[in-house]
Design brief:
The chain is α+β, with helices and mostly antiparallel strands. The chain contains 4 helices and 6 strands; from the N terminus they run ααββαββββα. A hairpin with a 2-residue loop joins strand 5 and strand 6.
Length: 132
């Protein structure tokens, strides 16, 4: 299976709010590199992150463009994050249902037909400006 197919399934699950579907795309030892955050290792840590995100944010990715390296071990996506800030996150401005829209990207490494590294980037200062 090529990288864009795997990434396509992952992002379709993300937009559907289907955490189990996202987890099914990941290796057990996935390394999740979060923008402005700590690296989380493993599907359990990824699931806990998703639970936190679902509580504080509602997001949909649009304008998704998928990329794949020729050997199928690397892939990337560029997208627009359309979100609503639902519940105040620790150390961040108070949530009052603010909406935000910003560009983002994810770089991924694949092992077989599973994602073993997810690295996500977006402009945190831009997000703060939009929700403050």
């Amino acid at each position: 299976m090529d990288a864009t197919t795997v990434l396509g399934r992952y992002f379709a699950a993300f937009n559907a709010g289907d955490v189990d579907g996202m987890l099914a795309c990941l290796t057990d030892d996935v390394a999740h590199h979060v923008n402005e955050g700590e690296v989380r290792i493993g599907r359990d840590a990824f699931a806990a992150f998703c639970a936190h995100m679902s509580r504080c944010y509602r997001e949909e990715l649009t304008d998704i463009v998928l990329f794949s390296a020729q050997n199928g071990t690397r892939g990337a996506a560029e997208f627009t994050v359309n979100g609503t800030y639902l519940e105040t996150d620790d150390g961040l401005p108070a949530a009052t249902g603010q909406t935000y829209c910003l560009p983002g990207a994810s770089m991924m490494t694949l092992r077989g037909d599973k994602i073993c590294r997810v690295t996500t980037y977006y402009n945190f200062a831009d997000w703060l400006k939009q929700v403050s």
